[in-house]
Design a protein that fits this description.
single chain; 197 residues; alpha/beta; Rossmann fold; 7 helices; binds 5-O-phosphono-beta-D-ribofuranosylamine
Length: 197
């Protein structure tokens, strides 16, 4: 069985969408893959409750408890690697994980580390993507699923979803419209990856 480890920092709605899709689409049977753990750098991440309620192992690694970014990433990588199975390295899915990862971490999980970013990359890397899209007068916005490389919010694009920016949109209304698409797109992208592996 190939294990999937999802990393979150907050609400975890993308993680929940992945868990629901894995159930509904029977990823275990179809791809031999299972969402084995949800890890968070924040103990109060809302998504942890959902994961627990669905019988998924949860782990909290508080980054503030580590002396450096490198030390945290090493500890996190060790916890993730505990989910490798023989010949089947775990797939690592970032879903609202609000930490910049060190090059060593990214290197270790190269090719099996994905992220979802709420913009049409390569536009608007970083934070406040929806506000920036509105301010730039964009007519369309969206989200991107990509493989993670050392450069923040870069890396090969796996999927993109596009939504219109409507007159009178605020950061919140646009974010909600994009998030709905994220919930459809991320499971699709992961299923496709699993299919190919
Ligand atoms: C999403 O918009 C995602 O694209 C971004 O952070 C947000 C996470 O939301 N990386 P949630 O925790 O999945 O609800």
């Amino acid at each position: 069985m190939k294990n999937i480890v999802i990393l979150i920092s907050g609400g975890g709605s993308n993680m929940a969408a992945l868990v629901r899709a894995a159930d509904r689409e029977q990823w275990a049977k179809r791809y031999g893959a299972k969402i084995a753990a949800v890890m968070s750098n924040k103990a109060d991440a809302k998504g942890l409750e959902f994961a627990r309620a669905h019988g998924i192992a949860t782990e909290v690694l508080d980054h503030k408890a580590y002396p450096s970014r490198e030390a945290f990433d090493v500890a996190l990588a060790e916890r993730i690697s505990a989910y490798d199975t023989p010949g089947q390295p775990a797939l690592v899915v970032l879903a609202g994980f609000m930490r910049i990862l060190t090059p060593a971490f990214v290197e270790r999980f190269a090719g099996r580390l994905t992220n979802i970013h709420p913009s049409l990359l390569p536009a608007f890397t970083g934070l406040h993507t929806h506000q920036r899209a509105i301010e730039a007068g964009c007519k369309f916005a969206g989200a991107t699923v990509h493989l993670v490389t050392a450069e923040l919010d870069h890396g090969p694009i796996l999927e993109q979803a596009v939504v219109p920016v409507l007159l009178g949109d605020t950061e919140a209304t646009l974010a909600a419209r994009v998030l709905t698409q994220e919930h459809l797109m991320y499971p699709k992208a992961i299923a496709r990856l699993l299919q190919g592996s």
